[in-house]
Amino acid sequence: MGRAEREVAGRGVRLAEAAARVAEDHARAVGAVREALRPIHDGLAERELTGIPVARLRDVTEGRLRFAGLEKGGFRTVQDVLDAGTYRLRQTPGVGQRTADQAVAAARQIADAVRESVAVRIDVDRDRGEPRITALVEALHVLVEAGPGARRAAEAGAALAARLGPLLADARPAVGRWRMLLAGREGRERALAALAELRRLTEEAERDAVPEQFAQASVDLLRRPESELAAWVDYELRSAEYYGLLAEISGRGPDTAAAEGHLPDEVAGQVREQRLDDAHCRVSLRGYQAFGARFALAQRRVLLGDEMGLGKTVQAIAAIAHLAAEGQSHFLVVCPASVLINWTREIESRSTLRAMPLHGPDRQEAFADWKGRGGVAVTTFDALRGFPTPGGGELGMLVVDEAHYVKNAHTRRAGAVAAWAERCERVLFLTGTPMENRVAEFRNLVRVLRPDFADTVDDQDSVAGSKAFRKAVAPVYLRRNQQDVLTELPLLQHTDEWEELSAADQEAYREAVRAGNFMAMRRAAYARPQGSAKLERLRELVGQAAESGLKVVVFSAFRDVLDVVRDALGAGTGRVFGPITGSVPPGRRQQLVDEFSAAPGHAVLLSQIEAGGVGLNMQAASVVILCEPQVKPTIEHQAVARAHRMGQVRPVQVHRLLAAGGVDERMVRMLENKKRLFDAYARRSAVAESTPDAVDVSDVALARRIVEEEQARLGVTDAGADAHA
């Protein structure tokens, strides 16, 4: 017993210390959030209780409480009773010991219910600068910045520290000759066995760079935001992640039944038992999202029908990531061409998995590469028909986005999907279209997933309502609504919708570049409506909103683009209002907004972004579509703020339509740093609001630079052309 044994024990001690440290650092960061949250939550609960009349105590005690004396004593609210307590209540004439005890007990019962129901909502415009809210944002910032990797490291650290502790204690005699002699035969055997296990664990950890991972996580968890301002700016950019952590830490997430889609206990229980390995995920899932991923894994062949904006894509990626962690290597996503780029980017940004688009003229070469190397392939419904179906067991999971595209079993695209689905054990269909009133379409989709189950779906299942329908089809269908699971309403969600230009789009764009016309380049994606990729995606987004009864505002800088959109959406339907343009008098603008807001259910309002982005409140809208990126960050912000403001009662989804590889991509890249600077220093400045040009990129300079770069990239030029900004 000597140096080698002491070295092994020393390595074990250092590993145990690092493991315990990262777990403690994470617990401290979580504790800081809870500490910051407590006074805010208590304040909200107190405000609610102050508004509840003391008469409500009679309801809780089923009429047994004699509270006339309480009212005469000046106790008006439930909070008054709580503040007084039984001693002060007993000093009130007409209030005896029994009445005081009953009143306080009933008040506490109401208070417990209120504390369970109140939710903390962070409003940037209202709360920025308020010390308690700022402290909460800063505490959350630490965990958001550290990312899910820090949580995984903390969990692994806690487990490893718990395992190493007893081993180090058992191995202690092995580090010295006299200790071994005094340990006795059983103690020596235990010490040698523990030392061998310590050696194995430390070597395994060092091989996998676990100490370095623990150290990095600890550093990340101890790093504070650079400033209050930096934390607030990050909150604006990633509010969904902040709210996800807040719900998880506070334990005040959505109602469990709603989060689980009102599935029967038998099905929900099976899903809860499904393990979810998020080692390949780069984002933390909300509780309902983790349940959705588990549902896909546990039930194997299902339709996820969450309402638009709840993150069906990230749930699918989480399910794929779990299977990848288990050793599966090949996955396929089939989607409309309009969202192929979005899928590729989402996979790359939200997971560590390799994304491989199978699209365009080189798709066969890409397919061969994917077959050989694996990863997550992303292709379109039309391209899928050109690929050979896989052998059994080759594909870990087939994901079909916008699955209602294959509702007609007699189409070629439906046939191709069915052929692939037949050879794959796990299939996940995604659609935001509610299936409750589309039983025939639902049955067709389920026939691909579970032929045996499809014939049991009866038209009468939908008659009893959406919850009854979901229970009837629970083994294959999961749907949640925003109002049921997003407890922190309102929420602002930004999505960049990257589209690949069609041949017609590319032709129009090339002509605009050749002419050096910057404005024509920006709206070239709408110049040929019959082949417009952006217009097709816009129609899909509006259609999804219509299915959920949501109102939509469509913004563009260009009147002719709005005319194209109006024609595409059906100007004579009575559901499309506007456009609001600079030539429309202010009174008429407000009238259009009022008519749009008063329209029952789904409606669309069209507006030029500078005409509608200032002075008009459009909080009836839950979806905002930006037809193209804007040159000035202020313009987009002010337009979105028309819908996402005080009075908005639903989350606001912002979809910015972008074309890959051209003027849109260059504008987004050039303006990103400028926008961050603007967000940090100018957004709420009175000077900036009145003179936005002082903080924005020069229109002319940006236009000229982009035109020149695009002419060089495409190899076209017009000597007489100028950049028309």
UniProtKB/TrEMBL annotation:
Residues 293-452 form the Helicase ATP-binding domain. The keyword ATP-binding applies. The keyword Chaperone does not apply. Pfam families: Helicase_C, SNF2-rel_dom. InterPro entries: Helicase_ATP-bd, Helicase_C-like, P-loop_NTPase, SNF2-like_sf, SNF2/RAD54-like_C, SNF2_N. Keywords: ATP-binding, Helicase, Hydrolase, Nucleotide-binding. PANTHER family: SNF2/RAD54 HELICASE FAMILY. It comes from Streptomyces bullii. This is DEAD/DEAH box helicase.
